[in-house]
Amino acid sequence: MRLSTPVFIVASLFATSAFAMPPTEINETSDRKQIENTLNDYIQGTSFSNPKQIERAFESQANLYLTKKDQPHWIVPSKTYVSWFEKRPVGTPGGRIGEIISIDIEGDVAAAKVEVIMPKRKARFADLMLLKKLDGQWKIISKTASSKASNQHGKRILFIVSSHDFHGDSKMRAGTSFSELVNAYEEFKKAGYTVDFMSPDGGAISLAYIDTSKPMHKKYVYDEQFMNALEFTKSPSEITPKNYRAVHYVGGSNAMYGVHDNAEIAKVTMEIYEKHNGIISSVCHGTAGIADLKTQDGKYLVSGKKISGYPTAFENTKAKYYKNFPFDMTNRLKQHGADFKVGAQGKPFMVKDGRVITGQNYASSAVVAKEIIATLTHLDSNK
Predict the structure, then answer these.
(1) CA atoms of 12 and 173, how far apart (whole Å)
(2) 220-229 long-range CB contacts below 8 Å, 24 or more apart?
């Protein structure tokens, strides 16, 4: 499969509908939420020594198929497993950070994967679980796990993407730049960060410029964890700002719509930046998302700062797509006091001004990510 610029691709896997969901989809959405609650009982219960939560997650006769030294096939009843967490006071952190990676539902059964990282042990566990709906309740009926060494430390980066599938109210397809997603994501993962995705509406997003002749594209288009995260992006109401060290506004033509004027997204971003000493970053058209952000004193975030993004000078201003843009990004940034910087067309270009880091185009994505990582390393070393 090869799909090259400037053709926009809206992947059917992530296509959303404006019509009401049929009953089967409504039921699956409800089941997924219940399964998430069950898995979160397991995650929170084991992370903070809460036996009652763990017990609630498992069916009473469930077994865990584990491994220990000299015993590769170790069967542990769920009641025994629960008892291991009774040795500490409820709420005691156990050094575990868990996250749901995927859920696959088939009728009244489901398979799920949960990632558990233990930074002090420099280990990552992949928990594979089988769940069944019993008397209207989803329960874990079996679990197994595998572990490996990992540099994951639990610090999180929040990618902000658009929910729009089209340019404005037109039928011209628009999507999030796949290059901008994967190039930055790769850098953060290599550095041990966990990346979450947030969109205005939550759920599946449209993707653009997928070209699987590029090794990085091929790697991630077939990466279950990555693609699952894009299918189930988080909504602003699901985000806890204190959990994130940086926000990163990803570009693509749809980044011009539904992000810059979303008050909930702005609230999340500015809380990370102002209350938790986090970083605000953007690339290409993603910079539109930060153009209207204001600080607590009512000033525009970009005022007096060096900022980059995709300049109007590089746009085809006579094209139909451009006429749907809600504003001219270069002019908007300058009107709000930004010192707008432009590099050579098609080349990586990044500027940093304090805790605001911005890039000009998709080729700048990895460069911006590396600068975010370097800045966070410096900030954290000075705590």
Answers:
(1) 12
(2) 220/178, 220/181, 220/182, 220/185, 220/186, 221/178, 224/101, 224/102, 225/101, 225/102, 225/113, 225/115, 226/182, 226/185, 227/13, 228/101, 228/102, 229/195, 229/196, 229/197
User: What's this model's pTM, rounded to 2 decimal places?
Assistant: 0.90
HSE (side-chain half, CA atoms, 13 Å) at 286: 30
Helix (H) or strand (E) holding 31: helix 23-47
**Residue 229 corresponds to which tokens in the numbers above?**
């995260």
Query: Helix, strand, coil shares of the chain as percentages rounded to 5?
Result: 35, 30, 35
Residue with tokens 């629960």: 82
Q: What structural domains and CATH numbers belong to the chain? A: 23-149 (3.10.450.50), 155-381 (3.40.50.880)
pLDDT tens digits for range 272-317: 999 999 999 999 999 999 999 999 999 999 999 999 999 999 999 9
Rounded CA gap, 35 and 137, in Å?
A: 9
Q: Where are the beta strands (DSSP E) in 7-70?
A: 58-68
Residue identified by tokens 């797509």 is 321
The per-residue pLDDT for range 200-242, each reduced to its tens digit, is 999 999 999 999 999 999 999 999 999 999 999 999 999 999 9
